[in-house]
Amino acid sequence: MNISIRPEQPADIDEIYELNTLVFEQENEARLVDQVRQGSHFIPELSLVAYSDDKLIGYILFSEITITNGDYHYQSLGLISMVVHPGYQKQGIGAKLITTGLQKAADLGYTAVFVFGHEFYFPKFGFLPAARWNIRPPFEVPTEVFMALELFPNALTNVSGIVEFPIEFSVM
Hints:
Layout: E1 4-7, H1 13-24, H2 28-38, E2 42-52, E3 55-69, E4 72-84, H3 93-107, E5 112-116, E6 128-129, E7 135-136, E8 146-150, E9 161-164
Parallel strand pairs: 4-5, 7-9
Antiparallel strand pairs: 1-2, 2-3, 3-4, 3-9, 5-8, 6-8
Helix pairs in contact: 1-2
């Protein structure tokens, strides 16, 4: 299977919405992606689609987030959405989206990425519980599902606090 990954284009937006709705079996994530796309924390280079034979089969979105500790603010990235069409899952497409996205994030100068995700999937890419750095989400979740990845060695060494998500996340 020939898979190409590229930044989303305006013509992809409806298909991205449909793919998110199909995979999550409701529209919350699709609406979140649309809200992030319209917000000031959207990074067009980090909204990526995977295509095979002219069919959109996967999508990943990273967005800026902030870690706050008192007056200290650290800009970082959150992996906001990642979906693969059910007919194409377990074929390495998600892994290709993640590795491509992480490389693009590093190339853009971002130093770390945070994700709410499956405790056995994301560690394959180097993600570790964010609690390791004393970084917490703004609400209660199991420690093992809120993870971080340093894109550069020791990027989070002097960072701690609570993640603040942009207002666009209020649709969830």
